[in-house]
Amino acid sequence: EAKRIEYPDATHHCSAFVAGAPDGGAVVGFDDDGEPSGTAGRPMLNVLQHKRIGDVVAVVVRYFGGIKLGAGGLVRAYSASVQQAFEVLPLDQRVALRMGVIVCDYACEQMVRHHLEQHRASLERCDYGQSVSMTISMAEIRSDDLASHLHDVSRGQILIQWQD
User: Fold this and answer.
1) Cα(132)–Cα(52) distance, rounded to whole angstroms?
2) Which DSSP letter does residue 130 get?
3) N or C: which end of the chain has fewer CB within 10 A?
């Protein structure tokens, strides 16, 4: 809608989107905005899905130039527009995080801190009482490796309580 307001005299404002993670569970959609069915939005969506990028919206604004492109020409034009946008699009990788709490004796604190660093876990908070309680966050995909590793090196004395 913002592009319709920005370019009110354009002939077409075709769009495609992938909302969510590209590897599953994403909601996708497209709009040909008056172009012949399947010549604009669907080809744009195909490019987005081929790039395996999620949480992305593409809008191609087109002015009719007096030359009819035909169905094949429209497909190529809309696909190429999205492809060209990807050449300059800054991308950020989003990583699902998992939070957990580790409780250990004071004597184990430095060893646990070492292993947290080795497994790229972030120490969010550390509380000292009768024992040391460490709140951590890390990439969900690597969390089971850290839990298994700490369990092994401590002979079952150090466990992570994951928060869901």
Assistant:
1) 42
2) S
3) C
- Burial class of 119 by CB neighbour count within 10 A (0 to 12, 13 to 18, 19+): middle
CATH of 97-163, one of 3.10.580.10, 3.40.190.10, 3.80.10.10, 3.30.70.260: 3.30.70.260
- Specify the DSSP element, H or E, that contains 13: strand 12-19
What one-letter code names the amino acid at 87? E
Joined together, the tokens standing for residue 136 give 């951590």
- Rounded CA separation 38/34 (Å): 10
How many Cα atoms are found within 13 Å in the side-chain-facing hemisphere of 74?
A: 22
pLDDT, tens digit, 9 for 90 and up, residues 53-88 = 889 999 999 998 777 888 999 999 999 999 999 999
Q: At what angle do helices 70-86 and 41-51 cross, to 10 degrees?
A: 40
86-103 per-position pLDDT tens digit: 999 888 888 889 999 999
DSSP assignment of 106-134: GGGHHHHHHHHHHTT-EEEEEEESSSEEE
Q: Which CATH number fits domain 2-86: 3.40.30.10, 3.30.230.30, 3.40.50.300, 3.40.50.1220?
A: 3.30.230.30
